[in-house]
Each structure stands twice: as C-alpha cells, then as structure tokens.
Design brief:
The protein has three helices and no strands. It is mostly helical. Helix 2 packs antiparallel against helix 3. The longest helix is centred in the middle third of the chain and has 20 residues.
Length: 73
C-alpha cells in the first residue's frame, strides 16, 4: 500500500504544502483501521473516544504511528 520508507521520509519527499494533507490522510486511515470504521467516517474534529476508541486501541494506534514514522511519539 505504501511506498518504501517511513512516513517521515515520504513526507519529506512531497512539497511542504502537501504534507499536512498527507499526514491527515495517514492518521485518518490508521484510526479507521484501529476502530474498524471506514476512513470516510472519520471527521477531523472527532475525538478518539467519540469514535469508539478505548485505551488499548489508543496504545495500538500510538505504536502503529511510531512504527510508520520511525520515531517515538
């Protein structure tokens, strides 16, 4: 699904004005997969717990994003 490299590396390869959109889409997809919803159902202003995420899912999401970014959060 993703090109080679960490998300952080891929973000650096796109123009600065595209980075926020790319990061938001990545986080939206990661949240959707974690809470088992369609990514289109994830609104930017929605809180994680409003989406049905519990504390274990939040830890799972953090670990996934750390792996994707290649950096601790």
């Amino acid at each position: 699904m993703h090109r080679a490299g960490t998300l952080a590396q891929r973000l650096l390869q796109v123009p600065a004005e595209e980075r926020k959109r790319m990061l938001l889409e990545h986080v939206r997809q990661a949240v959707a997969e974690t809470v088992r919803l369609d990514a289109a159902q994830i609104r930017e202003e929605a809180g994680f717990f409003d989406l049905g995420m519990d504390s274990l899912m939040a830890i799972e999401l953090r670990k996934r994003l750390e792996k994707d970014l290649g950096q601790p959060l």
